[in-house]
Request: fold
Amino acid sequence: MRLAVLASGRGSNLQAILDAIAQGRLEARVAAVFSDRAKAGALERARAARIPAESLKPGDFPTREAFDESLFSRIAAVHPDLIVCAGYMRLLGAPQVEAWAGRMINIHPSLLPAFKGLRTHEQALAAGVAVHGASVHFVTCELDGGPVIAQASVPVLPGDDATALAARVLEREHPLLVATLRLFAQGRVALGADGVHVDGRRLQAPLQLGGDLREAAA
Ligand code: GRF
Reply:
């Protein structure tokens, strides 16, 4: 399975993918990493692993559409089986989202459909929920609104601030993303007209890491 990874920031999810591949826990290859930020730590991590890494600056393009066209023509050129948005902080254009429907996923730090958008840990704390977490979902034109494949939950503990909660969630994001990618590598997941299909059956609810979604043993 060839992956193209999009990332805007530090790239710890990218690193989790690279480590899982290096350790034989994920049968995949990261074909290239793309970023909208030249200084993204994800680019350095990719280069350290000798993976082609490229950044495109949105300000260099006349329109949002021109940026997306250029980005996605570069992505298409590496022939990915799956595009993984791992902390990619820009909205994606509708033509590109539609062209890659069922072949593009995103990891989002909340138990979707709760807390879409930004500052999800602050949102969770403000709402007073007892359980928070992360979701991997197919990308559709609705922001953080595509069908959810799998989730990982963590407790919200007394005294948590957004930083503490974010760290607890991030620790589970990494195994969640790797376990979900293993399903893709095994050809077990597909996007159907009626939602997510796993092993040919429509999911009634997202898979749960540590429950019906097993962690890849280290
Ligand atoms: C993660 O919390 C991810 O869920 C969100 O952005 C953050 C990216 O972290 N979409 P990293 O760059 O992978 O370390």
